[in-house]
Design goal:
about 210 residues, Four Helix Bundle (Hemerythrin (Met), subunit A), 2 domains
Length: about 210
């Protein structure tokens, strides 16, 4: 009995697999200074595909169980490769720390989802903040890849803008994972700290009432 049915071999799933292949290939190509630009372009293109595979699946009704599991895995592979490459290029202690926090969060959430799926048979989907997190990670990562490898501009190791962008990325990344461990709100929903703050904004409370 095949593990993957023919119905799951869809265009979005093929694009997702392509993202994984491109990320892994880029991780090897980046070692060659003459091909580092090509590797960076591959990673940026892979992050752009992340938008199109989701859009295609929704637009043409090609959502599958395989895609629901494969897409977040592809995101984590891509993000891991991108930030490890940037960290190795910048060689800045605080950047290594930020990347370590990001990767630890991704690992813990992945393990959490696996445990829930095995014990309760329930797939835990990404929240809206989790999708924002992935978008921010891709934008920051792609921007740094561009200025480090495609249009080489010397980014100082303590450049304040890089620090601020990474701090924002880490904050959203960690907070998007807190919704899994924080207690439920009064309405029974699990929310992160940012979501709880937004919930109590005057305009938001009026709309939800």
């Amino acid at each position: 009995m095949p593990v993957i049915s023919r119905k799951e071999i869809t265009v979005p799933n093929i694009m997702t697999l392509l993202r994984i292949i491109m990320a892994v290939a880029a991780a090897f190509l980046i070692r060659d200074p003459g091909r580092s630009g090509v590797a960076a372009i591959m990673l940026i293109f892979a992050s752009i595909l992340d938008y199109f595979d989701g859009w295609y699946a929704r637009r043409f009704h090609q959502k599958t169980r395989l895609g629901a599991h494969l897409d977040p895995f592809a995101d984590k592979v891509l993000i891991t490769v991108v930030f490890l490459i940037i960290a190795s290029a910048l060689k800045t202690p605080w950047f290594y720390l930020f990347v370590g926090v990001i990767l630890l969060r991704e690992l813990l959430v992945t393990v959490y989802r696996m445990v829930v799926r095995r014990k309760a048979g329930v797939f835990v989907p990404a929240s809206w903040l989790g999708k924002v997190k992935t978008t921010v990670q891709c934008l920051v990562g792609d921007g740094l890849l561009f200025y480090l490898f495609i249009y080489p501009a010397k980014i100082p190791e303590k450049y304040w803008l890089v620090f601020v962008l990474m701090l924002l990325t880490v904050t959203i990344t960690v907070d998007s994972g807190l919704c899994y461990v924080l207690p439920k709100c009064s309405d029974g929903k699990k929310r992160s700290v940012i979501e709880r703050i937004l919930q109590w904004l005057p305009g938001r409370r009026t709309r939800e009432a």
